[in-house]
């Protein structure tokens, strides 16, 4: 017997048109995100269509003490959108309308379930640009992006998802509907709850709509891929190019990542030389002056021996081809059962930090392959440890847990973040104190109690 | 007998070097900001030098039930930093050090009491730029800027104070020291309390330090002042110039403001023609292409009859002279005992909104002069009603209270903000429900109870 039978019955009575699925295929499909470390256990999936329906659902869930887990595009990497304790999952798949467009404000209202790529395409059709972009933008939903404050490849120029959100409609854990900030650039009328819900991973309430800032379309985006002799050089290049140009991206990856991407047939090598590290940088080549500036920095850095070799895109086709080097990494290495970390430190600490980590892993686990890549312009590194063929998945993950402690000790040493853009969910929950103090976590719990006094909303995520 | 004698005695015992002033001149000086509607009543002013001292003070204040009012540069316009009930004032004047500079991160740590202009000068000396600027930057302190999320004249390009804050050290109302976000661009580890303290007007705790993002210095800033025939034209110009250029400012003011500024001898008329409205726009003229673009838009708008006349700065001196037209307004009209409003609506609603307000005021108060100016590129208007000579100050303010209700009804009609960048403090507290719902205010009170359970920290500000 479904322990939430009475809740589901009450839902059907109150919202007779609400779609409710309880079959195993559905609960397994909607009950999980991209993380693989947890078994899904979900009693039902429900598909509201309006903010008001979400409010009714949350109020009934409070009455029946039924925990609710939000489900967006299910592309999360920290298990914030996984039901493991027989919760009821609330999917935003049917709240997927793009609403009013405010041309003079360059702003559009979207439902939480709108796919990131749909918003990008909408913006493009208006002659504008939605600036948040990452590998899963074809599946991820705006509500999930907001709940994890998603970052991606353009943060250096446009900021995080947080920076695009001019207004937010949320249903709190008590079922109250809050319409926050109304799209204004300036509004100094008390606490800005918008920013509390952004990045809260659905633990304070559910985001149902957002007012999104759009940007002007970038002009003639141009990428360079550079081979770099040592990691310090990556940081120097960031400073040099960052000083001369307004960068729209500054990514890095290592030779191992390039080898795997090429072996998987995603693209070809950028040039004949090999290098321990690569940088992909991008800028708007609005005119020849800018191109000359970029070439000048390139030549100077090459003279200084920082760059082994380099290539610059001459067309959109070449730009897209160069980006494949970076954007195919995640998909390519997924075949090697990677143990993923998503960490950040100040740029000032990057070189020392990477050196420490490489030392730790090679000293303790000489048979592990480490694949480094990341949004280095934001101090954000994806550290991926690839499973050696001779280890089982369980043996490998067990060893990685130990590596994890070393890695997070090092993150803490440099006062960094154990989760730069993937959130905490369940996978990073045991490590939260490496970045946040116990006092902060206690305040978080008290804040959750304000918005969700019965602990109905995504319980057991971020903290217990 | 000072009712807070025991508290002050305990302070002296615990922090023997702490400066405490109780003389009337000091309490009157530090006990108020720029607002004039409240009588100052303050028992003592204390001057901590470190975050740890602030923590000790707050803990003792909790023990003794002594309310504390923060005091920064005292330039606030909403009475958030005024002691009226015999509170003890905590001044940040002695916490005024500029700390570590992180070159690779373009970031600097500053104490709360650092003057905005000192930070601007520090940035300039590093070849960088602190982007928040407004009329009171020579006196205002960073802690106060953060607590009110100060805006100013460059928001259209660089955002609010909120957008410059990469890390924050705060002492909560319980006396806990929180060090938030550590300067990282990406950090998805639970609730971002930084954004809760920004704009909280010192009601949740006291900001003691901040990590501030610096920008690259702008290149060849160039201003245009344009005379505009009707308000709709201002919005059209914003769209046209905003599409062609990356604007660093887009301000507007009316003929009355220009008349007063010129009569006061601050500068001369920008050109011979007169116009009901003026726009001051600014951009980086990085090369001739950009200048030509700007001139092209100007010519097109002039042909369409939107622009009466215009002038463009050809040097830094001319740039500064044109800015005087806008920046002298506030000081100039202060001689006319203005009743100030600081409101914002979506740019999409601006023209209708202004038309409604003008209709209301001229219909009901034909003898009132209205001076309009503001950061129109952010939807932010400063509506100033000037006192007719035949009314006493009290008669005038009483009438203004009634106008206020009409104005705020109109703000509410367009779902705008009754305080765009000045905060709520005490002056806007009675009107908070025009922008925030009672449910939101109830949540605010509950959040305050989490960080300040004894109501020690700046009580009676924002809400009761």
Can you put this structure into words, describing what you see?
Chains A, B: Its cofactor is FAD. Two copies of one chain form a homodimer. Chain A has 464 residues and is α+β, with helices and mostly antiparallel strands. Chain A has helices at 5-14, 24-30, 51-64, 116-125, 142-147, 155-158, 194-197, 231-244, 255-263, 288-303, 316-327, 329-333, 350-364, 393-413, 438-451, and strands at residues 19-21, 42-47, 68-71, 87-91, 98-102, 107-111, 128-129, 165-172, 177-180, 205-213, 215-216, 221-228, 247-254, 277-284, 307-312, 339-344, 369-375, 380-386. In chain A, strand 5 (98-102) and strand 6 form a beta hairpin. The radius of gyration of chain A is 23 Å and the shape is globular. The model of chain A has no long low-confidence stretch (mean pLDDT 95). At the A-B interface, strand 9, helix 8 and helix 15 of A face strand 9, helix 7, helix 8 and helix 15 of B.
């Amino acid at each position: 017997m479904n322990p939430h039978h009475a809740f589901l019955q009450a839902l059907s009575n109150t919202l007779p048109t609400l779609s409710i699925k309880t079959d195993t295929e559905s609960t397994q499909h909607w009950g999980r995100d991209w993380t693989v470390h947890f078994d899904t256990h979900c009693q039902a999936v429900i598909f509201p269509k309006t903010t008001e329906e979400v409010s009714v659902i949350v109020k009934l869930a409070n009455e029946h003490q039924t925990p609710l887990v939000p489900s967006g595009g299910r592309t999360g990497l920290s298990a914030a959108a996984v039901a493991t304790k027989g919760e009821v999952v609330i999917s935003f798949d049917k709240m997927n309308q793009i609403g009013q467009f405010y041309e003079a404000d360059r702003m559009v209202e979207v439902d939480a379930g709108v796919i990131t790529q749909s918003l990008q395409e909408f913006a493009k059709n208006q002659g504008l640009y939605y600036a948040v972009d990452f590998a899963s933008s074809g599946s991820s939903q705006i509500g999930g992006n907001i709940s994890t404050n998603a970052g991606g490849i353009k943060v250096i120029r446009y900021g995080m998802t947080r920076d695009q959100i001019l207004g937010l409609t949320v249903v709190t854990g008590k079922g109250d509907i809050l319409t926050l900030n109304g799209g204004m650039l300036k509004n100094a009328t008390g606490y800005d709850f918008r920013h509390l819900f952004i990045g809260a991973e659905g633990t304070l309430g559910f985001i149902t709509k957002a007012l999104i800032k759009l940007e002007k379309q970038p002009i003639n985006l141009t990428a360079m891929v550079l081979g770099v002799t040592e990691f310090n050089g990556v940081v120097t290049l960031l400073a040099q190019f960052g000083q001369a140009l307004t960068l729209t991206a500054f990514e890095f990856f290592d030779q191992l990542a390039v080898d795997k991407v090429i072996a998987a047939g995603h693209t070809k090598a950028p040039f004949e030389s090999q290098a321990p590290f690569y940088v992909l940088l991008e800028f708007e080549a609005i005119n020849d002056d800018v191109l000359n500036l970029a070439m000048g920095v390139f030549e100077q850095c090459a003279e200084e021996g920082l760059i082994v070799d380099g290539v610059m895109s001459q067309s959109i086709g070449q730009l897209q081809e160069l980006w494949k080097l970076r954007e195919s990494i995640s998909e390519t290495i997924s075949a090697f059962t990677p143990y993923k970390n998503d960490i950040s430190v100040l740029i000032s600490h990057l070189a020392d930090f990477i050196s420490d980590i490489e030392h730790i892993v090679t000293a303790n686990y000489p048979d592990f392959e480490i694949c480094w890549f990341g949004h280095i312009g934001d101090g954000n590194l994806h550290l991926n440890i690839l499973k050696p063929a001779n280890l089982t998945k369980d043996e490998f993950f067990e060893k990685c847990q130990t590596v994890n402690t070393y890695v997070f000790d090092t993150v803490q040493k440099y006062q960094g973040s154990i989760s730069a853009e993937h959130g905490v969910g369940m996978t990073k929950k045991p490590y939260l104190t490496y970045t946040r103090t116990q006092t902060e976590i206690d305040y978080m719990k008290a804040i959750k109690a304000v918005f969700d006094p019965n602990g109905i909303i995504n319980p057991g995520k971020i903290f217990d």
